[in-house]
Amino acid sequence: MTSTIGPERDFDPAELAAILRWYADMGVDLAIDGEPHDRFADCAKERAASPARPAPIASEVAPRQASAAPRLAAGPARVSDPAAALSQEAAAKAAREAAQAAQSLEELRAALEAFEGCALKRTASRTVFADGDPSSRIMLIGEAPGAEEDREGLPFVGRAGQLLNLMLASIGLQRSGVYIANTVPWRPPGNRAPSPQETAICLPFITRQIELVKPQVIVCLGAASAQTLLNLNGILRARGQWRDYSLPSGASIPAMPTLHPAYLLRSPAAKRHVWADLRQIRRALDAAN
Known about the structure:
The longest helix has 20 residues, at 82-101. The protein is an alpha/beta fold and 289 residues long. The chain has 13 helices and eight strands. It has a domain at 87-287: 3-Layer(aba) Sandwich (Uracil-DNA Glycosylase, subunit E), CATH 3.40.470. Helix content is 50%, strand content 11%. A hairpin with a 5-residue loop joins β1 and β2 (10-11). It has helices at residues 13-25, 39-49, 58-74, 82-101, 105-114, 120-123, 147-152, 159-169, 196-213, 223-230, 235-238, 261-266, 271-287; strands spanning 3-4, 10-11, 131-132, 138-142, 179-182, 217-221, 243-246, 252-258.
């Protein structure tokens, strides 16, 4: 069976499969409309419909060029947009206020659902809050949801999540008996990494989530989680070493940075390192009984 794309040729099933794989590799894994649109043509129409901006007169151009010269000579510093900076600052403040007002996990979830200060929410399908037992002694924290997580509304349900389930089982834990969350609750488009600004805006929510769960042990899954929560760089050097996660109250929780299951899927030889980390986590849980 062949499918016609365009007026000139047919694609066989193997070619169509290759096209779909290419789309997936480029991050195009979700259709947002039933019909294709020529965005380039739409932009051209918008430009044609917009009134032409009048050319500046010479007396206006010269002062601008003169004032720009010292900035160019001073170095590569970029002039930020004050409105954009204010917007980020306002969003971070709103996130802190909303998170601190939540007195339960249910209220925190509702605050996240109502929060509009992070642009990732507008492109994600669902808010991925958490999964598992909120009364668990152990809390595992990753970075951000992927495509499967975005569809199901739960963290770690794709291939990396399946491997995480096996990792937990290797030390006698079940997924239903632990608590799992992410530092960022919305999937970035195309599975890209969240920007530092996006992570900073979402940070008050995961901080409050940890406060409300009160785990005895935190496991930071991957470099991004370790950097966000423990201010650690270089997960391969930092993994396997206990750190203290400091709560706003001044108390601390033992935290173990380890490799993300997605990294293990790409680098299976690193599983031996994570096995050593998991045994440390098991010993810590046994000692806390």
